[in-house]
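Page 42, continued from yesterday. The earlier attempt failed because a stray header line got pasted into the input along with the sequence. Redoing it now with the clean sequence only.
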Amino acid sequence: MTTEPHNNNTDLSLAKQQSNKPLLSLCWDQGKLLMLDQRLLPEKIVFLELTTPEEVWEGIHTMKVRGAPAIGIAAAYGVVLGAYSFQGDNNKHWLEHVLAAADHLATSRPTAVNLFWALDRMKERAAQLAKDQSSRALRNEGLLAEAVAIHREDEEVCRKIGQHALPLFNSGMGVLTHCNAGGLATAKYGTALAPFYLAQEQGISLKIYANETRPVLQGARLTAFELQQAGIDVTLLCDNMAGLVMSKGWIDAVIVGTDRVAANGDVANKIGTYSLAVLAKAHNIPFYVASPLSTIDLDTESGELIPIEERPEHEVTEGFGKRTAPSGIKVFNPSFDVTPHHLITAIITEKGIIKPPFRDNLAALLKP
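This time it went through. Structure tokens are written below.
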């Protein structure tokens, strides 16, 4: 299913958002979800108007929206759209309808734990609302308020991650990042990119290096784009140049986002992250992971148990419509890899910086 924007003026007004600030990937607008189609960046800025949970599912599944926090936010609004589509007045039937929409959205992508965290939160709120004898309109309003809260909380979480991370970076440092963990992947600021925006606000000069991030080029299309738009000094690298620039002494630190943190501190992130961590270790460069608490999954003991999504082979053989490999060639295209905890210097959360031993310190951080 393809949903085209219905109102070009809306697209333009959103596209012309504030300069020197991260683009917003999602916006709720009068009963519909506006989703920036990130597949079209950097050549086009197009916001899609989504009005059903099926359209949100397709937007997540086809990576029109990506980044663990943004996926969770989109799914939360998808549950609201599911509630809007219910026409009856029976509380029980309303709840069943909402839960079915949430369960369907949970099948869109398997790795990012934020998706399931946000959906569980929406289902819990729906169950609470269903106990009330309020009207369907009030139940829907309560569900929307929960989705908006998830959205707003993520913005604050990202800023706090940036505030905790910023002291790790001194003016003049070179910092390497991989994939996109910026404003396009979250409500605002990003996780791994948040300290870059805060550094800019405070007049701290950092030189950012962004890996292109094969095969879908999130680093080239998204990270380089949003940092350039914000006026931040950024240099784009092919993925296989990371070792060279490290050997030249250009990189003082590496910081990446994550889609899931296991109980022992292993992290799943975009494919290629593990290689960067190995290179950073070899060059004695600190390797940081920026992670909201909602991305920490204590129920998953280690990275070996994190489900790794495999993407279609055409992303490798026919990237962006141009065949670059022989027809019929076998392809392995995992979307993520797992970086073992012993390669990670610290995990930066909205509650502070977590250092080894990760199993003990993560558990203590999340203790009620």
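Notes: The longest helix spans residues 136-165.
Reminder to self: strip header lines before submitting.
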